[in-house]
Amino acid sequence: MNTKTLIDNLARAELVDMVPYQSARRLFSSADSDTDAKVWLNANEAPGSGEYQIKSSNINRYPDFQPDNLLTGYSNYSGLDKTQLLATRGADEGIELVIKTFCKAYQDSILICSPTYGMYSISAQAQGVNVIDVPMISNTLDIDGIKAVAEQVKVVFLCSPGNPTGNLLPESQILDTLAIFQEKAIVVVDEAYIEFSPQNSMQKLLNQYDNLVVLRTLSKAFGLAGLRCGFTLSNPAIITMMSKVIAPYPIAAPVADIASQSLSASGIKAMQQDVTTLNQLKQDFSQWLSEQQWCKRVFPSDANFVLFECDDKDGLFDLLKAQNILIRDQSKQVQLRNCLRISIGNEYELSLVKNTITQALANTSAKTLKV
Description:
Blueprint: H1 3-10, H2 13-16, H3 24-27, E1 39-40, H4 68-78, E2 85-88, H5 90-102, E3 109-112, H6 119-126, E4 130-133, H7 143-148, E5 155-159, H8 171-180, E6 186-190, E7 212-217, E8 230-233, H9 236-243, H10 253-262, H11 265-290, E9 295-298, E10 305-310, H12 313-322, E11 325-326, E12 328-329, E13 339-343, H13 347-364
Parallel strand pairs: 1-11, 3-4, 3-5, 5-6, 6-7
Antiparallel strand pairs: 2-8, 7-8, 9-10, 10-13, 12-13
Helix pairs in contact: 4-10, 5-6
């Protein structure tokens, strides 16, 4: 018996044919040749890099389970008590922990509303949990469809602002969902991009709904994607329960040091200034897209990326890739045929995108993009 056959036989059957989440770095590795020449606009990362100091005096010691400097920083930033916070390895670990804490393998189900972030389904499948999908209707929740499956669900995942669509969910619909699942299921609102529209956070509802969990990350607006640091926000009872299943040392000491600096008063001010700049660049780029004949639709965005539909999705993607400009193909997602997603980089990077497309159109004398 060869190794692959052996492993296939030993692994859980449902994992053998499962397709892993295709992250931006799985699709295009940062170890690829000419990395420095690439324009990375496919992972919703913040442009630029910060300067941080780390301490190495205790690197031989295990870090605290929940480093106090980190929790204090996020407590001050969010206005929540530290008992309402759990620091995790990115928001992705928060997704995994919620499922692990509240769902029984091969018995329970989660609910997603596609198109949405792929890791909800992957994390559930990896833990033997079923996935029920009630697709969105015009970028809003299908409340009637959600009600129809309410008795079958233990955890609900809502992404607001959504990924890959970029829009906020109406607060009234989130309230409806919380009411539907009160005393029935946990409702998770993933707010990875909420710094780009902070006034719309559902954090304000935490004290009203015992079944609400909010996920956050430092990967987007704070520009710390490589750090892998996120937070789960909820009531102390849920945080305590999730703390029972998380790894014993989830946050590395250097991660806590850098993240704490980003959560200082000066770090938060710098983040907010960057958000203002990126939101303006997003508005300008969305306007430019809407003026292009080859662009059929520009989705409204409350995040740091723009989703758009175009005539020749493959041609545009390949044109930019040939110039080492990487964006994200979202056309395989439900309801997103011919759609591409571009992260809002810096002004130079977005100008490079515009100029590359404009030049290609000029060279072909075409009104639609065909390359």
